[in-house]
Amino acid sequence: MPENVSNCPLCGSDQKKLFDQRRFRDQMVQNQICLNCGLVFQSPRMTTAELDVFYQQEYRQLYQGSEGPNPKDLAVQHGRAESLINFAQENLAKVSHHLDIGCSAGLLLAAFAKAYGCRSVGVEPGDAYREFAKGEGFTVYPALETIQENGRERFDLISLAHVLEHIASPVQYLAALRRDWLTADGYLLVEVPNLYCHDSFEVAHLVAYSPHSLTQTLQAAGFEVIGFKQHGQPRSQVLPLYLTALAHPGLNASIHQLKPERWVAAKRRYGLIHRRLLSRLMPRRVWLPADASVNTGL
């Protein structure tokens, strides 16, 4: 049974209106915009119990036609891992203990372990992908709660690559990571689709982030953003398809004054028009084949 979201996941306002409605692989997806802060979020959406079953058993089958990794998906993950490592190395000199939430096949775990010589641990709800990563020699759990059962650890880097858009209550979730899992001097690495260029609206995407709303979400959770990048790697050389942010716990974690975003619909329309135009003018630079992420290092 679909669940209607009464309050904005960022500011808590109950004032919203329909922003987008479409069918995604035979499923109706509706996204609302908060009239107070400008965040775009899915409502109605699956319940928490339905989401748990979906990610454990159905997500990969729906998105790529198989439960386990396939060559195209592994190529994209390889390119994404290299992009994230390059971004991290521009900002982080040292990583000792790394947690990757939504680690998938474990390629980002492998990249960080190689680049930093750190201990990398993963969380992956999908059974087939978790077993694949474990087969590569990594410690991977089905949920954060499972790590707790084995003795709580703290990490000096927590990464969420294309995970935050799947989280129903992002501010509370990130605040809990800061409070319970991150060291006091640790860092949070986040990457999400960009509302102003990416298609964004999928059944599994509960929140659609703009550069502004991602920054506001991190700050509301008690983080200070120290690095931010809009880019298309590994799928495009020119389109800002993705947003990557590096943050650490702020000195005044409990103090945050929300700054609303305006003209969200106009910014998205402009971004998608720009994307279509570039796709016609320079298609080879705009859209890279999935395996180009391996061949080009993107």
Q: Approximately what portion of the residues adopt beta-strand conformation?
A: 15-25%
- Following the backbone from N to C, one meets helices and strands in this order, namely EEEHHEHEHEHEHEEHEEHHH
CATH class assignment: Alpha Beta
- Could you tell me the number of beta strands? 11
List the main descriptive attributes of the protein structure presented here.
298 residues; alpha/beta; 7-stranded mixed β-sheet; 4-stranded antiparallel β-sheet; 11 strands; disordered C terminus
Structural description of this entry:
- This protein is α/β, with parallel strands linked by helices and 298 residues long.
- The protein has one domain (48-249, 262-288): 3-Layer(aba) Sandwich (Rossmann fold), CATH 3.40.50.150.
- Helix content is 37%, strand content 24%.
- The strands form two sheets. A seven-stranded mixed beta sheet has the order 6-5-4-7-8-11-10, with helices on both faces. A four-stranded antiparallel beta sheet has the order 1-2-3-9, with no helix packed on it.
- It starts with 15 loop residues before the first strand and ends with a helix.
- The relative contact order is 0.14.
Quick synopsis:
This protein is α/β, with parallel strands linked by helices. 37% of the residues lie in helices and 24% in strands.
Could you outline the blueprint of secondary structure elements for this entry?
Layout: E1 16-24, E2 27-34, E3 40-42, H1 48-64, H2 71-91, E4 97-101, H3 107-116, E5 119-123, H4 127-135, E6 139-141, H5 144-149, E7 155-161, H6 170-180, E8 182-193, E9 207-208, H7 211-220, E10 223-231, E11 242-249, H8 264-281, H9 283-286, H10 292-295
Parallel strand pairs: 4-5, 4-7, 5-6, 7-8
Antiparallel strand pairs: 1-2, 2-3, 3-9, 8-11, 10-11
